[in-house]
Amino acid sequence: MSDKTDAKRRPKNAAPIPVSNKRYNDYGFATSPKSFVSSDLPLASPSVFSEIDVVLDDGTLQKRTVSLSTIPDHYFDEEYQDESSHDTMDASAPLLKNNTTSSKNKNYNSIPYDEEGSGSPTSNESDSDGSFFSSPKQHYKPVNATPNRISILSRIRSYVSYMELSPQQRVVLKCSFAYCLGSLFTFIPALNALIGHNHVSSHYVATATVFFNPAKTLGAMMEASLYGWGYAIFALVICLGSMLTTDFLFDQNMLLTAHVLSLGFWLAGSTFIVAFLKAHWNKPPVATASSLCFIILFVILVREGSSNRGDFDTTRIEQIVSAVAAGTLITVTCCILFWPVSASKKLKKDLEATLLSYKVLLKLLTKTFLLDDDLPEFKANKTLQNAIDSHRASFINLQKSLNEAKFEAVWNSDIRGCTGEYDAIVKSMERLAQSVGGLKSSCGLQFELLNQDQQASGKRRLLKNAIKDEKEIWSITADHHRRKLEDELKRQRSMRQYSSNSTDSTPDEPEDSTLIEFIKSIQQPLKSLAYTCKQTIVHLKKEFSDKPRTGPNNETLKNNLVKAIALFEVSKGQAVERLNRCRKHHHDYIPKEDAFLVYFFVFNIIEFAQELMCLVEAVQALAEAKEKKHGFFEFIFQSFSKKRAKSSKASSFVPNERNTFNTLHTPIPKTKWRQLVLRVWRTFSLFKLQKVRYATKACVATVILATPAFLKSTGDWFREWRMEWALITLMVVMTPTLGQTNLVAIYRIFSTILGCFVAATLYLLFPDNTYVLIFCTWLFSIPNFWIILHHKHGKFGQFTLLAYNLVMLNMFNDRETHAINVTHLALQRCLSILVGVVFGLFVTAYIWPYEARVELRKGVSDFLLRLAWLYQSLVSFYSKRPKGQTEAALQRQQSSQFFMDYELQLQRTLLELQELLNQTPNEPRLKGAFPVATYRSILASCQNITDKFSTMRSVILKDEWFEQVQDDFIMPVSQERKEMVGNVLLYLYTLASALRLKTPLPPYLPPARQAWESLISRLRQLPVVKSKELVQKDHIYLFYYAYVTVLDDIIRELDKLGGNMAHLFGVIVPEEQWESLFNMLDIEQNQPLLKSI
């Protein structure tokens, strides 16, 4: 298409687009504004006008009003919904929709950038208060002229819409239908005949439906079924092997040997394998399959095997296996027939929700940086709270949803042949989440989780109704740099007001307000870039929605981001030039520390936009892959022919390693005998692993509790009181941590009592009444499945149903003989459960205890050492000189992926540590309550340091770092840099050692702050800093400004960690006493002359 045609399609006030003379590559943009041809642009920055150049969806550049004006607080009830329907920008659409409603409750003021009112609507005279979100649109219903004439059809439709079930209610009914169908195999003789007239094990059909509840997605259901059948076949093989050996040894009159082999080999070995895999994989489908496997093993191997006298009878095995198979088939059928949920659709919804969270956080951070000089501590509303939760959960939930969706590739064409593209999208989303974390830290915000006391004493009571149902409330506070920037902005603003009011003010006085001028200069261009990013996210959301996508294609979105970044680079360069003129006037060639945060945010917003471009490319690759139709047989062939890429570990670093080779404690073996001894030592060292210890004590505990079944004196008693239920309870109660065990034990006892009581009561009221008992069974399952699916204590409902199921269905099977009383059966169940719970608590608490609070402390220690290793790796990378341009670019690409994978591991480790922290209140502690708040603060500091390292990684991987910064700033200050890096590493090591040892800290921690200040002082003395060359290359040295800011924040967080650990473990010498040791005293006056700093 010709240029004339393009000109006709553009709006009348469209401006030329800046064209980059550098092509985008995988290593990032050149951030210099000189890399863009901008001769067609006006000489003045676009930000000096009330309108700003904005890249529209069609790729044109047009003057538009982009406003970030704010709204009152009573609009905090904005719904967390899809905003794509009203995100299309019209002639005056703001980045955050404008609202001019006034409010009397002014508690969030804006910066009056222009007292004359010529440039910004955010003056002190404005009535709009600062909230982060726009008000929802008001929808008015048309007035009906004849309201009494309502048709019957409309009433029916209203009733139907009122009776429509929510997704939560649907999954509960789906599970109750499956459980009811499983119970029918006991209540209805015709269905019982399908499993071989099984009157002994028919209740296992309903038990299987409880474990394999059909509320899962189709992919998760397939995964659970595969694990379940795999474990069932394993249990079947173990039972057949035990029966064969018992039959053979009994014929040889070796009954004792047969029992020892059944206990010591078949039972112990199978229990060890299943328990180890349960702890190793640590997945809900594996835990469910393990429970079913233990049911089969303990019933066949212990109860039936102990009474076996050489008869090779597989009837009992067939009954249990057929019952479990029927229950699994019922669950899968209900999952498919009743309101099926596709895992691929769930993955798309998760991607859509995560993108929405990025959009909300982008609004929050952009508004905070540009408008608000007073950032009060407040509670987030529901919209922001969901965005923060979705952002935190994206590190795990997206990968989990993708793994479930991959199981649907056999029949789902949306995922078949596109798994690689979805992998790339999820990885890009995870990197974008890391970029959001860097953007948040550069904006000077910290998201902290409030406890209940802080929630109750919060200042913003207006949000109470909006978030009263939420269990967690986030607080957003300003960090040190943010508060320092706010103070500087207030000072400069007051000086400007004083200069405008004073009659004898000189022209040089307003020049001190350079920071306000710089923020004002980049305000509108930054809004334009944020708007383009927001629109890109909105259109990407449509790619994962059910509605057909409209609007620009992915190539256009990518080009729009390139144009928006180029436009912002030009405007930023012009703003920096104006700032440099002020600095030249004052002969101050390096910016003050107050301006570091401004540079930092500008750098990170560009990084966010560039990472968003990578996401657009990944989505574009997915769209191209979907156009290619992949047949079923082609998919099967590719699955078998494709070689799986070996997952490279992020690092081989092992924190708190006590046996480093080639040392005096662990020398390298030189003889074959020493090599053999070392191999034996390594083998027994495996028992130090928690997974092996858990499997070992589970194996030993099972053998001890099962031994009475094989003794003559206790065998009949064991079978009469159904102690195999105690074995099953033992394996359910024994969880990896003590806190989980205590919680599960409480659930198990009370839920068993409740289930047995309800079952016995109903059976006594309606004995042998088939239809009433079926209805009562289905009705009783509904609240229990609601607890299982939608309550944090879901195990309570599961254990209640299992107890009810066993008592009710076993009594109905005994309706003809009445060999056992219902109260006796309920008592048997309660007693066996009590035995299993008590024994499980004893084993977990006193045999290799795995306490959550201890593991939390050790985990934080390991995490700090991993942070030290990451920092050392970053320093070693940016200190080396690149050999060649091509080789250096490839090395930076590989290092970038390496560091991002390692940072992602750190993020997931933090979530695991948070889970351990949540379990600590469940563990009894005689010394007093566990300091949960202090450890929560420690984890928050670890999260902040991780975000800072992520930003540092993005800074040092730029080309300009090795081309200019390394020679001008890194090499000349090698000695000061060595002191600072060494002090930071020593600081991390000292804190990690204190956590591991629980010993008091020394009175003097490593002087990392003094080393940083010494580095800054040395930098200000460099010749390049004192020359005008610094001003000319300010866009390049911006990277080093961000690096210096990151180091300051890291050291500040280290000091905060040191203070928290001093409160936890104490100090060897109190601070006052330590300071008094170094005060110089006047002998005559006995007063201090000089106090050491």
Question: What report would you give on this structure?
Answer:
By secondary structure, the protein is mainly α. Helix content is 64%, strand content 3%. The protein has 36 helices and 10 strands. A hairpin with a 6-residue loop joins strand 9 and strand 10. Helix 23 packs antiparallel against helix 26. The longest helix has 35 residues. The N terminus and C terminus are likely disordered.
User: What is the strand arrangement across the widest sheet?
Assistant: 1-5-4
The tally of beta strands, per DSSP, is 10
Estimated share of beta-strand residues:
under 5%
C-alpha-based Rg, rounded? 34 Å
Which structural category do the helix and sheet elements fall into? mainly alpha
Binned, the helix content reads 55-70%
Low-confidence stretches: 1-50, 68-149, 372-380, 450-471, 503-512, 643-650, 1089-1093
* Main sheet characteristics: 3 strands, antiparallel
The coarse overall form would be globular
Q: Number of DSSP helices?
A: 36
Termini separation (Å)? Answer: 72 Å
Mean pLDDT: 76
